[in-house]
Write a structure and sequence with these properties.
Elements (H helix, E strand, L loop, with lengths): L9 H66 L8 H20 L5 H12 L1
Length: 121
């Protein structure tokens, strides 16, 4: 059978079309997977940022409550002398809370020192 010169036959055209189609499908699948991965990474980053923001708000609220409690204690008139162990335990608890907040990074060294000085009078 003589070989044709010129345009490919029906089988050659179908084979070329199949190769082009398969390549396009593979490329579009890779693009879709990459976009889905990026979208998931963005969602995870947003979740982490929201969790961190919530933690900061919680810590700030706790600090504000402690400062309000400290201000109320300083503004209150001197109460009758309580047993020494009770006053010492309360002071130790407040110092412990301040130390925990400093270790968590909520308070700077200067803020910690100022709060400690207020507590110790």
């Amino acid at each position: 059978m003589p070989r044709r010169i010129g345009r490919p036959g029906l089988i050659g055209t179908m084979a070329r079309t199949a190769v082009i189609s398969g390549t396009a499908t593979a490329v579009s699948g890779n693009v879709a997977r990459r976009q889905a991965g990026r979208a998931q990474a963005r969602q995870e980053q947003q979740y982490v940022e929201q969790a961190q923001a919530q933690q900061v708000q919680d810590n700030q609220a706790q600090l504000a409550a402690m400062q309000a409690q400290l201000a109320a204690q300083q503004a209150a008139p001197a109460a009758p002398a309580a047993p020494a162990s009770s006053a010492g335990d309360d002071l130790m608890a407040q110092l412990s809370k301040l130390a925990d907040m400093k270790n968590a990074g909520i308070l700077s060294d200067d803020e910690f020192a100022a709060a400690k000085a207020k507590l110790l009078g």
